[in-house]
Write a structure and sequence with these properties.
The protein has 200 residues and is α+β, with helices and mostly antiparallel strands. The protein is built from eight helices and four strands. It binds glutathione.
């Protein structure tokens, strides 16, 4: 399989961490791209976004949630609990974490636009979503898997790692003791250490 990724993308990292946790890392060739300009990526994915996965049979998948579920299928299961409360909870956490990552990505991009090209109210909305999403994660942090044993925990670790990457001084840990403690451990997983964000 071939994974088109960018080292700054929390969604691409989520797929890479998932692959590591499922012991599929050595079955995936990584292709580092700039999603804004890469012609091959655009020819494979009409949205021209990372992550994009080319399967062994040549079929192309995009959307990190779909790619992670596909990898779980290839590995014959592991990160997705059977239908029931544990599954809904893992998928809801993935949704919250991905929402935080998306809001953080938009906020970061807006912060780097000229003043006349950004909207204060939109930026405030993104910041509010990040803060409220983190509060929600803190509320249930005691049930998060330190071993990144489900897709919800993988997604949360990647969202928190992205906040640390983009805003090393942002105090997201303040008042969120359980989440911070959880990330101190989960962030040290080999899958996380081996996929650290960096500038291209
Ligand atoms: N919902 C998508 C989001 C993917 C996404 O937004 N990727 C960003 C990088 S973090 C991207 O490729 N941006 C390029 C663009 O928007 O053209 C997923 O989960 O895969």
């Amino acid at each position: 399989m071939k994974l088109f990724y960018a080292p700054t993308s929390p969604f691409a990292r989520k797929v890479r961490v998932t692959a590591h946790e499922l012991q599929l890392g050595d079955r995936i060739d990584l292709v580092l791209v700039n999603p804004w300009s890469d012609a091959e990526l655009r020819s494979l994915n009409p949205l021209a976004k990372v992550p994009t996965l080319v399967r062994d049979d040549g079929q192309v998948l995009f959307e990190s949630a779909l790619i992670c579920e596909y990898l779980d299928h290839v590995a014959a299961g592991g990160l997705y609990p059977a239908p029931g409360e544990a599954r809904w909870s893992a998928l809801l956490r993935q949704g919250i974490a991905d929402g935080i990552s998306a809001a953080a990505g938009r906020l970061f991009a807006d912060e780097h636009r000229p003043d006349n090209e950004r909207s204060g109210s939109v930026m405030q909305r993104q910041a509010a979503a990040i803060e409220a999403g983190l509060d929600r994660l803190e509320r249930d942090a005691d049930t998060l898997s330190r071993e990144l044993a489900d897709i919800g925990a993988v997604s949360v670790a990647c969202a928190l790692g992205y906040l640390d990457f983009r805003w090393p001084d942002r105090a997201w840990r303040d008042g969120r003791i359980e989440l911070a403690r959880w990330f101190d451990v989960a962030g040290q997983r080999r899958s996380m250490v081996g996929t650290q964000h960096h500038l291209p």
